[in-house]
Amino acid sequence: MSNSTSSVNTAFYITTRPKSNPHFNSTSSRFITFTSPNHHTNKPWNSWRSRRKSFSHVKNVATDQQSVAAAEQEEQGVILRRVSKSIASNIKYHAEFSPSFSPEIFDLPKAYTATAQSVRDEIISNWNATYDCYEKTNMKQAYYLSMEFLQGRALLNAIGNLELSGEYAEALSKLGHNLEDVARQEPDAALGNGGLGRLASCFLDSLATLNYPAWGYGLRYKYGLFKQNITTDGQEEVAEGWLEMGHPWEIVRNDVSYNVKFYGKIAMGSDGKKHWVGGETIRAFAYDVPIPGYKTKTTINLRLWSTRVTSEGFDLDAFNSGDHVKAFEAQANAEKICYVLYPGDESMEGKTLRLKQQYTLCSASLQDIVARFERRSGSSINWEDFPEKVAVQMNDTHPTLCIPELLRILIDVKGLSWEKAWNITQRTVAYTNHTVLPELLEKWSLDLMQKLLPRHVEIIELVETELLSTIVSEYGVEDLELLEKKIQAMRILDNVELPATIKEVFAKSEVSAADTDINEILVKLDGISNKVEPKDKKKNSKDKSSTKKKTFFKPDPKQPKLVRMANLSIAGGHAVNGVAAIHSEIVKEEVFNDFYKMWPDKFQNKTNGVTPRRWIRFCNPDLSNIITKWTGTESWVLDTEKLAELRKFADNEDLQAEWRAAKRSNKIKAVSYIKEKTGYSVSPDAMFDVQVKRIHEYKRQLLNILGIVYRYKKMKEMSAKERKEKFAPRVCIFGGKAFATYVQAKRIVKFIVDVGATINRDSEIGDLLKVIFVPDYNVSVAEMLIPATELSQHISTAGMEASGTSNMKFSMNGCVLIGTLDGANVEIREEVGDDNFFLFGAEAHEITMLRKERTDGKFVPDPRFQEVKAYIRSGVFGSNNYDELMGSLEGNEGYGRADYFLVGKDFPSYIECQDKVDEAYKDQKKWTRMSIMNTVGSYKFSSDRTIRECAKDIWNIEPIELP
């Protein structure tokens, strides 16, 4: 058989007998001619794209513009019909010969799977070309490691990026189905929870679109986080079976797998090297998900790891003897690693499972990266070149074990010295920080890590010694109090004895600062012998006769020994970035100030971004068409700075009318969805006021619902005429998941549901106010709700949200924001203009003082705040006891009390700002202008901009466009 890539027509006999779809194949059997999916280079839609781009030949021979347009339209129609016919045949082929479903019926689930497999054919062609290009050029590649990738549905995004939306719609129409109905059959991939995972997915889209050589690495969770049901009792969690009907986008790589070890012990081998022996070994298998770029052949890869053991792990003797549980024990222990995203960690078993997850991600990914480096290097491997070919980005601290794992591979497996391995690791790895809360920085039990990963603890101890040596070099020993303070703040191991070489600095009870020879000490610190001058020598110098009492770092036996993962990330990498301007400043000035003072060049800001493809172009086609029309180009999808063209039309009545019509169309879709999912009917004429994100106290959904309760109370106190004059009609929509063990967050969900149940049934209030909690919020729900939103709430306590990405998505879609000066809100407000952002609340620099004021008993709550709490306790929202919830807002100190997130402090400012929202919304011309200006100002928040900055400043990679 010829291996030629010329078009090959293959005839196959189709015998399906559809029962519900007469358009699929009305005859009982017939021959269909099909262009084989193995010959992608000559698919009709490839030639169609090239022909469309080179259509200028028509213009060269035609003088009449109308004739040109007519000829062009006719030719495009011919090509579309030809391509859609080929696509329809491809879909039929997969319906018959990729049998994920029974052949008797071509219903929507089967249509989705066959369509996805058809799209995947085209993607795989580009994926293979991209992979081949990277292998041949051996260029530097970035690897993005994340515990979460919140991808959402892939079908519409993929065919949109391939520029085949019209063709697939036409093809499915011929087969008796609607493209949108087919796309809705796809479950959201349950690989993430919130902004961290969605950011990672946006980054992959931009990396592919901009032709950067990069891959993502994650875990293939069987059940994800959980599926959220909303009942009268609040949130109910059930397993999310997103894989039950198969996942047509993934490619199983049975040839790519790596051993991952746990437990065991360290033994010295006859070769004089340390060996990690014994313990438990599982196998990580690769599943690849191709990520196509927009209007480019570049298709990068998201490699997900699934865990199991080989057949040797099945205890056949135990099974035959009747001990079936024991027979499957090894397999069960391996598989559960990838069952659930963020398993509950209140038990030791839960903590162990989480640490296993993190190490599996790091170990399998690093082994894969190293293997790729070695293969591309051929016979001349130079490990010094590793950082010149590999960049590893850790998305938060979850992948921090990359640092000791890479060191382990380089030292124990590849035989490099500590000095070389340490230098290579520091030049390779970088860290993105996602929290400004020191108490939320990840810390692991040293005892647990010692038990689970004994070799890595040894390596972390070496990293700690290296770090402490640097601190002593930097600050000297003249001021031992200063040195102690720096070591306490910066060391990796907390509540642990200092290394012996460092303890010598503090060994004597009285040390003369003037007589201390820093260079003698440094000689003992891992061979460092270069003379240094202590930092701030004049400031820290003491009189030669003065003495200091010795300082001890004695562990407290009552406190746990911990490994500070963020400190390890900073010490082991070459770059640390925050994700918004205010966040990065807090990181430098507060959270990691000591590190920043020692290594200022390591710290950067990379404000988050979101892909404009998914978050405007595909999820909001009505608005996209308007933007293209009024900017005169579709290139804004790749260059969002072109959105600035809308600025000069912001007051144009025609644009405003089209803008409002698009928003109303999206609201009508949301109305239908809300009715389907909650049973509540809402009016599309009311303002859609939305807060959708992870349920957490610092995000202050509680402030929002308290404001709604206050609004409801005031409505009840007014006549029908008065309330209609004062309040704009609103549909207040909430969505988001509370972590299963986060009791207070689940109380908030329950309270929102109870308030909604009361208000939504109040005929006196009617459509003037509705409260909706949308269940199981995910990317697909966001794609429906965000285009319909008019007011978007981002009201976290100032200084506590690292950035946020949903605020960017809402702003892109013309939603007006109400919020605090927190995270990316600060930069959004700067770009859209103060007049187009509703600002309230305390600022970040005031928070510490305000909390102290509360602790000192000096806080005087606003009467309106007291009023709303009393109203809730009156029983108006049912017989449920809200004492715990309201009690968290009261008192001056204590865990779960004292209003740590300043809801009471910001409440008066918040409700006064909401009055301004009502007033603005009544002037629809003004409101529409504000909406347009939010879309204009969102140009800065494309993930394309973020990726370009990361590629240049952190990864040092260059784009490469496939031929």
TrEMBL record:
CDD domains for the chain: GT35_Glycogen_Phosphorylase
Enzyme class of the recorded protein, top EC level: transferase
Entry's localization field: Plastid, Chloroplast
Keyword Coiled coil: no
PROSITE patterns associated with the record: PHOSPHORYLASE
Biased composition (Basic and acidic residues): 533-546
Region entry Disordered, spans: 533-557
Cofactors, names only: pyridoxal 5'-phosphate
One example GO MF annotation: glycogen phosphorylase activity
GO cellular component: chloroplast
EC number: 2.4.1.1
GO biological process: one example: response to water deprivation
Protein name from the UniProt record: Alpha-1,4 glucan phosphorylase
Species annotation: Papaver somniferum
